[in-house]
Amino acid sequence: MLAVSGNRRQRAARDRMASAALEYAAMGWPCFPGAHPPAAGDRSCSCDRIGCPDPAAHPVSAAWAHQASADPDRIRRWWSQRPQANIILPTGRVFDVFDVPAAAGAAALDRIAREDLPVGPVANLGDERHLFFVATRGAPADEDEWWSCHLDTSPETVAETPGMRWHCRDSYVVAPPSVLASGREAAWLRPPAGAPLPDPLRLLEVLADSCE
User: Fold this and answer.
1) Which band of pLDDT confidence, cut at 50, 70 and 90, is reported for residue 4?
2) CB 3.0-4.6 Å disulfide test: which of 44, 88, 141, 186 passes with 34?
3) Phi/psi of residue 8, nearest 5 degrees
4) What confidence score (pLDDT) does residue 21 get?
5) Architecture field, domain 1-39+55-139+151-210
6) The DNA primase/polymerase bifunctional N-terminal domain covers which part of the protein (predicted)?
């Protein structure tokens, strides 16, 4: 009986990523498999790259932007092949994401509650970062308005809003219940509820103040 229960727990652990990805797909959110912490060994990422700069937090293929999908059959196939794969959500399509240090995110949530401001889904990445999901700006006609997330830079170097990234076109985030390199999990503080996402510019002011 203990062996059976153990097998059930292992199977549930394997299936939960696929189940979560299918839930996102049902909301119209495209997904793609991501790297994950290896089950054993001394590496922090399942990819083959030595010294991976973003362990367990990047897509498994450079073709993610073209292949990400909300098709349930494709998602089942991907996670049947990679049951431990984390979940990557492309941004700049259905939503954008403000990515801030956890302390700034907590302060912003307190202010949002006090001032009764609109807020959408919010995820916690291992108590290190908070992700605020907002309505996407798509592709503005005026490219001067575009704020790229610059995935190859450190957000702490951005003078105007230190520690903050705006994930938009050509970017992505890791979604719950993905397992981070630290061994902690991404988790929802405010799960998606199907409500319209808030205006990013309205929330930007609050988050920028919290990052100062």
Assistant:
1) very low
2) 88
3) -65, -40
4) 97
5) 2-Layer Sandwich (3.30)
6) 21-201
Q: What are phi and psi of 25, to 5 degrees?
A: -60, -40
Question: Considering only CA atoms, which of 108, 86, 120 is closest in space to residue 192?
Answer: 120
pLDDT in tens, 129-186: 999 999 997 665 555 544 555 554 455 555 555 688 888 888 899 999 999 999 999 9
For residue 85, count other CB atoms closer than 10 A to its CB. Answer: 22
Q: Give CA torsion, residues 183, 189, 194, 198, to 10 deg.
A: -110
Contact 186, 175 (CB under 8 A): yes
**Cα(28)–Cα(46) distance, rounded to whole angstroms?**
28
> What is the predicted pLDDT for the residue at 1?
41
- The pTM of the whole model exceeds 0.85: yes
Helices (H), 48-101: 64-67, 72-81
- Between CA 70 and CA 23 the distance in angstroms is 10
Phi and psi torsions of 50, nearest 5°: -70, 130
Q: Where are the domains of the chain?
A: 1-39+55-139+151-210
Give pLDDT tens digits for 73-83: 999 999 999 99
Helix (H, G, I), strand (E, B) or coil at 105: helix
Please give the Cα distance from 178 to 187 (Å, whole number): 8
